[in-house]
């Protein structure tokens, strides 16, 4: 297939309902013709996290409206499209299923080919969408639900070098915000507080740095933060603003140090395969954190690798990445039919042993 | 505009996939398959087979009728999401039909419509049109007080056909997009983390 392709993408695996249209002519950078995101932050605010049933309810009544707007924004109709890509997992199953069913309806009605996309592949291929990065590259996917290092050799060739064995960092940021009475989502509010704090005032652990691999753990940081907070509260019957800022700064520094060191290790593995133009890319909402970004930039500079961080709106959940990943899949001749299954669990790397959730239902991601 | 629209009606609000194909008020066929899981995989192929067996394609459809519940939350989202996608892709109206309206149409005799729910409960629509989830015995008593009985439960096939007839009765009016009728709030508890007191607020 050598002609230009125009693909519609749908995303509904967590708390953002999104639709986007991406076009690519071979040899030319892909172009995002429209990208619509309906967030659900207000819907979940009172609950301190995403409530799956609330998310599913919102997705079911917004997906088609989102698609309509993506078409209108691009000035295109279904007749101008070549395929429909939809997130088919992993994620909150109610939302994923709504997206898959809406996409099936559109595909049946229009005759457009249907392509099920792994949400994580969407994130992992984003550096190609934004910067035209060539394979192989090292990807750090770091968000509210995921944290893993991926060696990306092809649109369907991912090797996980390591990842979290429990929580994702974004989840730890959210929990920190809740424990300190800061606004959700926790990432931006904890980062803002940390700027006013002393990262060395309160010592946090650096989990799993004593192990030589690229695996991480962030669950213990939440407990450490709770203990440190309660200790201060026990002494003073409350927190000062400075205490709160110091807690945020200490917590964030621990996350930064762990990610920097594990990235150094992942980079060593990646450099062994001898990439001609080494690239480390990040994606996921946590990649928006400036302290983490600058630490990764330093690690990359030390190793002589280029650091690629897509714009924030393409780091967090969006449908342009789904359209693009679908486009790359479609180019290889892959296409699904109306039996496409929505999957709550769907590891990108099917070969490496699973790190979390490896129960009866298989690895989570 | 045709007087005899081709209407596809479907429902996955309980443990089945049911679909009916109608040409105007003529029922071409209605079919249903029992399943406790896998509706999201089966629904569209089942309907495609139904269309093919009557020498029709998706693009021949003039309107969609969809059962919006109440019922299994995931099930009603499967049908509603598919209906909204089809409506958008076809540029055709999708009519959302409640389980109460569908049952009243399917049975067509005096009585109160009720939709089975887990643990010996039903969603009841009382004589005043109010809806609520309650034990089956209480629903029967409510009906008896109004001098009525509960309507018998139709088969999934009859239910799909009734959804088609209700859709036809509304055609070609431009409807609001179908939305799930949950009748029960989502299970969600506010965060239990209580932030500490700020000493220098």
Protein architecture, described:
The complex is a heterodimer of chains A (365) and B (201). Chain A is of the alpha/beta class and 365 residues long. Chain A folds into 2 domains: 181 residues, Nucleotidyltransferase, domain 5 (2-Layer Sandwich), CATH 3.30.420.40; 176 residues, ATPase, nucleotide binding domain (Nucleotidyltransferase, domain 5, 2-Layer Sandwich). Chain A contains 12 helices and 10 strands. In chain A, the strands form 2 sheets. A 5-stranded mixed β-sheet of chain A has the order 3-2-1-4-5, with helices on both faces. In chain A, strands 8-7-6-9-10 form a 5-stranded mixed β-sheet, with helices on both faces. In chain A, helix 5 packs across helix 12. Chain A is globular, with a radius of gyration of 21 Å. About 1% of the residues of chain A have low confidence. Chain B has 201 residues and is of the alpha/beta class. Helices cover 33% and strands 23% of the residues of chain B. The longest helix of chain B is centred in the middle third of the chain and has 18 residues. In chain B, 44% of the residues are buried. The interface between A and B is large, with 54 and 42 residues.
SSE arrangement:
The complex is a heterodimer of chains A (365) and B (201).
Chain A: E1 5-11, E2 16-24, E3 31-39, H1 41-44, H2 52-60, H3 63-74, E4 83-89, H4 93-110, E5 114-118, H5 119-131, E6 137-142, E7 147-154, E8 157-163, H6 169-180, H7 186-194, H8 219-236, H9 241-272, E9 279-283, H10 290-303, E10 306-308, H11 312-315, H12 320-331
Parallel strand pairs in A: 1-4, 4-5, 6-9, 9-10
Antiparallel strand pairs in A: 1-2, 2-3, 6-7, 7-8
Chain B: E1 6-11, E2 16-23, E3 26-34, H1 39-53, E4 63-67, H2 73-90, E5 94-97, H3 99-107, E6 114-117, E7 121-125, E8 131-135, H4 136-145, H5 156-170
Helix pairs in contact in B: 1-2, 3-5
């Amino acid at each position: 297939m050598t002609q230009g392709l125009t693909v519609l993408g749908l995303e509904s695996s967590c708390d953002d309902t999104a639709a986007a249209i991406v076009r690519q002519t071979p040899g030319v950078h892909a172009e995002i013709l429209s990208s619509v995101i309906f967030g659900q932050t207000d819907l979940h605010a009172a609950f301190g996290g995403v409530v799956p049933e609330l998310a599913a309810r919102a997705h079911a009544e917004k997906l088609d409206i989102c698609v309509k707007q993506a078409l209108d924004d691009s000035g295109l109709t279904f007749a101008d499209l070549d395929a429909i890509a939809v997130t088919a997992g992993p994620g909150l199953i109610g939302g994923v299923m709504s997206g898959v069913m809406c996409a099936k309806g559109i595909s049946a009605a229009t005759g457009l080919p249907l392509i099920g996309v792994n949400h994580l592949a969407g994130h992992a291929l984003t550096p190609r969408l934004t910067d035209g990065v060539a394979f192989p590259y090292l990807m750090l996917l770091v968000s509210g639900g995921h944290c893993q290092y991926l060696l990306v050799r092809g649109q369907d060739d991912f090797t996980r070098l390591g990842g979290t064995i429990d929580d994702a960092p974004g989840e730890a940021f959210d929990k920190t915000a809740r424990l300190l009475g800061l606004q959700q989502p926790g990432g931006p509010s904890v980062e803002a507080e940390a700027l006013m704090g002393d990262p060395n005032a309160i010592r946090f652990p650096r989990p799993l740095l004593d192990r030589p691999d690229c695996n991480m753990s962030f669950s213990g940081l939440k407990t450490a933060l709770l203990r440190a907070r309660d200790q201060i509260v026990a002494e003073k019957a409350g927190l000062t603003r400075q205490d709160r800022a110091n807690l945020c700064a200490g917590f964030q520094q621990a996350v930064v140090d762990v990610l920097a060191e594990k990235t150094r290790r992942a980079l060593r593995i990646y450099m062994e395969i001898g990439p001609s133009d080494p690239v480390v890319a990040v994606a996921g909402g946590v990649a928006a954190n400036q302290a983490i970004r600058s630490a990764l930039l330093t690690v990359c500079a030390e190793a002589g690798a280029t650091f690629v961080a897509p714009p924030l709106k393409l780091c967090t959940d969006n449908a342009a990445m789904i359209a693009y990943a679908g486009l790359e899949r479609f180019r290889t001749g892959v296409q699904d039919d109306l039996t496409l299954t929505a999957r709550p669990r769907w590891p990108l790397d099917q070969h490496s042993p699973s790190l979390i959730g490896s129960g009866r239902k298989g690895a989570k991601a | 505009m045709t007087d005899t629209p081709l209407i596809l009606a479907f429902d996955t609000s309980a443990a089945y996939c049911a679909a009916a194909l109608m040409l105007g008020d003529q029922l071409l066929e209605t079919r249903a398959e029992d399943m406790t899981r896998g509706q999201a995989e089966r629904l569209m192929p089942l309907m495609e087979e139904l269309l093919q067996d009557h020498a029709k394609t998706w693009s021949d459809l003039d309107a969609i009728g969809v059962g919006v519940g109440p019922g299994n939350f995931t099930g009603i989202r499967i049908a509603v999401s598919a209906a909204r996608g089809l409506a958008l892709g076809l540029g055709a109206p999708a009519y959302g039909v409640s389980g109460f309206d569908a049952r009243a149409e399917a049975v067509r005799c005096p009585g109160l419509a009720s939709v089975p729910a887990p643990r010996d409960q039903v969603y009841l629509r009382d004589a005043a049109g109010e809806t609520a989830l309650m034990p089956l015995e209480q629903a029967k008593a409510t009906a008896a007080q109004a001098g009525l009985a509960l309507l018998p439960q139709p088969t999934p096939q009859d239910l799909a056909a009734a959804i088609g007839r209700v859709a036809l009765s509304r055609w070609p009016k431009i409807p609001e997009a179908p939305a799930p009728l949950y009748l029960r709030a989502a299970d969600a508890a506010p965060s239990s983390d209580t932030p500490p007191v700020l000493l220098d607020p």
